[in-house]
Amino acid sequence: MTAIPLDGPSCADAPPNSSTVVTRRATETGFEYLLLHRSHAVNTGPWAWTPPSGQRLPGEAVHPAALRRLHEGTGLTDTEIRPVDLGRNHALWMTRDITARRPVLNHEHDDYIWVGAEESTKLCQPSIVASSMTTVDAIPDVEMDFRSLTDNDFALLSQWSHRRHLTPAWFHRALTTTGAADRYRACLDPDHPINVHILRINGVDVGIAQLASVADLPDHLAATGKSDDIAIGFAIAERRWIGKGLGPQLIWSIICRLVMPRQPTPARVVAFTARGNRASARALHKAGFTTDGTVQLGGRRRTMHCFNPGYWLGNNQ
Fold this sequence. Notes:
With 317 residues, this protein is α+β, with helices and mostly antiparallel strands. Helices cover 28% and strands 30% of the residues. It is built from ten helices and 15 strands. The chain has helices spanning 62-74, 117-123, 127-137, 154-161, 167-171, 177-184, 218-224, 247-262, 278-286, 309-313; strands spanning 18-22, 24-27, 30-38, 49-50, 53-55, 81-85, 90-95, 109-116, 144-148, 194-201, 204-213, 230-236, 269-274, 290-297, 300-307. Strands 9-10-11-12-13-15-14 form a seven-stranded mixed sheet, sandwiched between helices. A four-stranded mixed sheet has the order 5-1-7-6, sandwiched between helices. A hairpin with a 4-residue loop joins strand 6 and strand 7. Helix 2 (117-123) runs antiparallel to helix 3. The longest helix is centred in the last third of the chain and has 16 residues, at 247-262. It is globular.
């Protein structure tokens, strides 16, 4: 693999030791991408033009480090960044559509340009940089949020339980509306240990998310041995949003919008995938989860994935 040059002082040893934040804005003809020109580089060639990027300092949490590097390189503040692929040494993030304004460059850069996706892949070299632009360009700009489950959702859950990609991994069998009510009505009680939410993309119901304290789940507690963990689960029901690269964003939305308000300092966030559920396992890996062996849950063997909020979010928890 091509080594990525890192500007500035020494960087963190543990991965990811650096980040790229692909920064884009919407235009009438599609997204444009912000590229910065390195001061010490020739006009074109490898590493001359890149999206905002840089190293993580020793002891610095990953998300704050990426925000810091974006601000230092462009002057952008209060910018939302979303995970694309955190499961590698050089983490990849993307911004939402930002309001166009003139970047404020630091000493590491002497010029900037806004270009379309195709031109960005020509300017960004070597291929490891160009591929980051291609990856982000394929991800739609969406707004995710959640609403609490209500008794009006049982018909919707029944409908989703008949989706072939959800039946074995999530619902285990197709449900009638009555069957969905029997399974989920107890979760409407605020004191129930499992919180169930409906995922919305751009205001439309498209999936399900749930979370619970491991201390309230005997099988999970026996499997993990850690009572202060929070367990999460998720599924996108509507196929139009599957395969769009939104999995890491969904998982971080669950952590930041659902887990942290409930328990601001969990030791870990854990998730469990069934054998063969490669899509969810891959999304968890790209969201920063590590695999921690297999466990028995409800008589079924599951792979356990773990996320350390302090390592990734730092004081932003």
